[in-house]
Amino acid sequence: MDKHRWIRFGSGICIIALLLSACAAGQEPQTKRGTESTKAQQTTQPAKTHAGLPEEPILRVETGMHTARIKRIGVDAAETTLATCSYDKTVRIWDLTTGELRKVLRVPINQKKDGMLYAVALSLDGRTVAAGGWTGTNAKHDVNLYILDVSTGHIRHRIGGLPRVINHLTFSKDGRYLAATFHGDNGIRIYDTNSWVQVASHGVNKTNQGHSYWADFAPDGRLVFTSFDGYVRLLDSNFKLIAKRKPSGGKRPRSAVFSPDRSRIAVGIINSSEITVLSGQDLAFLYSPKTPTLKNGDLATVAWSKDGQTLFAGGRWDVDGLVPIRAWSRAGQGPFRDFTVSQNTIMQIIGLKSGNLLYGTQDPSWGVLNHDGKKILTRTASIANPRENQEGFKVSRNGQVVRFAYEYGGQRPALFNVASRTLTPPTTTQDQRELTAPKTSAPGLSVTNWKHNYEPQLNGNRLELKQYEFCHSLAIALDEKAFILGTGWYVRCFDHKARQKWQQPVSGPARTVNVSGDGRLAVVALGDGTINWYRMDSGEKLLTLFPHADGKRWVLWTPSGYYAASAGAEDIIGWHLNRGRDQAPDFFPASRFRNAYYRPSVTSTILETLDEDLALAKAPVPVKQKPAAPIQDVLPPVVTIVSPDDNTIVAEKNVTIAFHIRHATDTPLTRFKVLVNGRPITVDANELNAILTPDANPEYSGTKGIRLSRRITVPLSAEETSIALIAENRHAASVPADIRIQRPAAPKITTEKAPTPQVLKPKLYVLAIGVSAYQQGKLTLSYAAQDATDVAKVFQAQTGKLYRQVEVNLMPDATREQVLSGLEWIERETTARDVAVLFLAGHGVNDRNGNYYFLPADVDPDGLKRTGIPYHEIKNTVTGLPGKIVAFLDTCHAGNVLGTRRELAQVDMDRIANELSAAENGVVVFASSTGRQYSVENKEWQNGAFSVLAAVISPP
């Protein structure tokens, strides 16, 4: 079964993670590492800048995978590490053996193009990344090339003042040099990797369109590069020109790659299916692989297998919407085979020593093929794909409900309701009655040439766009007085006389657009997977939705960062904070600011109010909401591990970790945690005191804050150990700084019969609390106590199977004193080697201040503080347990408790699930409902739906 599964029971959705067997086996559950109002401070006032960069935080999507095209890829010499770069302004480091994401590297950015990465190269040892692209405020004379440390993410060096956008980067085979190719007529520059000083350069013909998109080193130091002036140029090992040649097949050579024996150079050309193979000595023409002429696309990207016997090519050529890689045998002189790998352009191909083939695409995706073209490893985007879904992108009259699709061409449609914050499958009836498709034609408003075109027209007159701005979508308002164009760069609103009313830059191509029936809102689906709402009168962005491609998770946010999120989706967004050009930026997941910025009521009402401040003021009574403090005023600490490197092999029983903690001068550290394999360990009191005690002379202080250098000794398990360090201040906990420590390989046993290892199974402690018979009769439930009893029996049956022993503390119809004693019991008994389960069934409510209480049998609704179980008692217990902990929460029953008193409000289980399962808490959470939904009891089952589910998923 899948590790994550959503199951609907009646009106409730259960979010479950089948991790009990992993806990029993001692494996770590895989968790994701991640004045005036703030609107005035962060969106409407001019942004403060530092070296051309905004100082204000920038809200970004983070899914664990790129959200825009992968432009380039690179591997280390051992071919165990992969680096990918993207238009989404990140470099990602992957384990090439498992496909696991190891690190996200970030560069300084702004809210426009600065930071878009077009080129990446990984050093031979896999410790250094070079990254470039549109990395400057002015792409014509102020571009930066960043040299990044893979382990820490720090910027080691910056080469600034470069003339144009960087298109390609590559290290020499001996690691001594880095070559960079440029846009315009700037050709190529070569840098010494010890000093990062430029040692050579070569321009191209002055055409202002001589873009250089590729370079490759031969093992002997020779260098080949391409240019759109039509030439391929070959340099010797001293970077002197040997020869230049215009290959046949087209005017714009894109890629050029040496064969492993350096005797040949394969060249791929934009808008051409012809591949040219030239001499590696003097660029003399050798041959062209035989291939039929392709009527669409090209084969502009080329590569060789490691043995040089196979020539590969790919590009924009597709067959029925699917993009293949073509492989010729006999070094390009034999027959070819096609391997379908993508739905979008192939950007780079690399032959591996194993005989496998690595590729990166614009989907975005990357993967590895074996010799037969079978995918043996792949990573694809986690974004909804709005391409070719113009007619299927529908909205309700008030714009609150949107119908979109997760897959190309409108496949896998879904509905999202902003007001109720619900994600559901679409219904034909609802589509017909309530939702309308974009209007693309009108008698007096003839917009033509708008679909996949550079020159849209209104009534025969060309509309003013920027050069090379490509139009994708159109929606005409019902009153026909205005229309929306979606392009690759902007959302634009024009009136019926072709006058532009407003334009807004977009973070991805505006693939589909619509206008609400009441004319108040423009709704736009972008290529980065987001859906955005704008005011039709002014173009002000009001709201953004990111529906995760898994069809379950979603997050909704305003421009100032007020958000709502389904369980497990909270850290799909986060704040990027620049620290100047020479320091790596910080990135803080949204969960770090949950207390201030988690405002579901704001996201639900802003499309009604069309104003964030009004949405804040309209929060449900008696909850009073005020603007949150600016993000930069409530930052958590930042922890960076300096040594050892990730995946270091350590033979000793302990490892000493050197790390830095950075925090603001006015927010000293209040707490420090060490998690080993996902659970907290006890830190030596002297070491803890040394970590938390302020330095008399910190490394730096003042406006930059304080950075502390610290060390700590951590015990290791017998197998791979994951270690996470977390520092806290009064605002929040830091993002975990984590590494994995490997253990030496066990010696091979040469005896005929190896001894059977004795595995000590963990012990399971179960605290099962279910309250049905409340002393306040109006609160009575039917099956909560029975649920606890039945679930306890299921776990008790695991004795001698997954667990050596199971101890159950069953508390049906528990009073407040009994619940608290049960929490003390599980806290006292559970050790680091054990697994703990908390099952909680009954009523849960929020008081007037939004504080959650579980209601025991003797609760007095008029005295919740005296008689209820506050959330902090539950949280402190489960998050402080040293063993692995699984919590089953079934406390959102409709009952009579809701609505009987104005000060009692329904619990938001999304918030609780997100908080408990956060990395610093590490609890696996099973919730019986999400958001505003209720748990379900069923007479046929004689149980609640949740306990039936718990019995089904319990390990055999």
Structure commentary:
It is a single chain. With 956 residues, the protein is mostly beta strands. Among the domains are: 4-26 and 762-953, Rossmann fold, CATH 3.40.50.1460; 69-162, Beta Barrel (Thrombin, subunit H); 394-630, Lipocalin; 638-742, Immunoglobulin-like. 11% of the residues lie in helices and 38% in strands. A six-stranded antiparallel beta sheet has the order 46-47-48-49-50-51, covered by helices on one side. β60 and β61 (737-742) form a beta hairpin.
Topology readout:
Layout: E1 4-9, E2 12-17, H1 20-24, H2 38-44, E3 49-50, E4 53-54, E5 58-61, E6 70-75, E7 81-86, E8 90-95, E9 101-106, E10 116-122, E11 128-134, E12 143-149, E13 155-162, E14 166-171, E15 177-182, E16 188-192, E17 198-202, E18 215-217, E19 223-226, E20 232-235, E21 241-245, E22 253-258, E23 264-269, E24 276-279, E25 285-287, E26 301-304, E27 311-314, E28 323-328, E29 336-342, E30 346-351, E31 357-361, E32 365-369, E33 375-380, E34 394-396, E35 401-407, E36 411-417, E37 422-424, H3 428-434, E38 435-436, E39 447-448, E40 457-458, E41 461-462, E42 471-476, E43 482-487, E44 490-495, E45 500-505, E46 510-515, E47 521-526, E48 531-535, E49 541-547, E50 554-557, E51 563-565, E52 573-577, E53 586-589, H4 594-597, H5 600-609, H6 612-617, E54 638-643, E55 648-649, E56 654-663, E57 671-676, E58 679-680, H7 685-692, E59 706-715, E60 721-728, E61 737-742, E62 763-770, H8 784-796, E63 805-812, H9 816-829, E64 835-841, E65 843-846, E66 852-855, H10 864-867, E67 869-870, H11 871-880, E68 884-890, H12 909-916, ...
Parallel strand pairs: 55-61, 62-63, 62-64, 64-68, 68-69
Antiparallel strand pairs: 1-2, 3-4, 5-52, 6-7, 7-8, 8-9, 10-11, 11-12, 12-13, 14-15, 15-16, 16-17, 18-19, 19-20, 20-21, 22-23, 23-24, 24-25, 26-27, 27-28, 28-29, 30-31, 31-32, 32-33, 34-35, 34-38, 35-36, 36-37, 39-40, 40-41, 42-43, 43-44, 44-45, 46-47, 47-48, 48-49, 49-50, 50-51, 52-53, 54-56, ...
Helix pairs in contact: 8-13, 9-11
